[in-house]
Amino acid sequence: MTKPDEDKPKLDPLVDTLKPETMDIGPLLLMNLKAGAISFVASIKKFLNLIKEIFIAADKKIEIKKEIESEEQAYQKAAEEIENNTYRKGIWAKAFAEAEGVEHRQKALYIKYRAKQLMEEDK
Question: pLDDT digits over 3-32, tens only?
Fold first, then answer.
């Protein structure tokens, strides 16, 4: 005569550890659950940061379009970005390369390039 448990198909050993009578889910399972949860939360945070950056960029674009009404304002805005350390890194790097590392030339080139960009965005 067979025992009732012997007739049942064998489950995955990991699933067997989840039986209420043992409730020993094991450290490996806990580590995997934790790692999965951390990855999931990290992905969500990256996504939320991306959304935040999109909203900030959109707000800046709206603000810039309202603000830039003349060439003088474009140059002023570019100079303020340098003063406030809020300059665009790509344009800053281009100016650095063309200025061959000379800081005052880099600033002048940045203002020139950025003002041009601001006036083009306003169109």
Answer: 555 665 555 665 555 555 555 567 777 778
Any domain includes 97: yes
- Cα–Cα distances in Å, from 57 out to 36, 54, 116? 32, 5, 18
| Assigned domain for 3 exists | no
Q: 56 and 93 share a domain?
A: no
The domain total for the chain is 2
Q: What is the pTM of this model?
A: 0.49
Specify whether the CB–CB gap between 106 and 113 falls below 8 A: no
Chain position carrying tokens 């800046």: 60
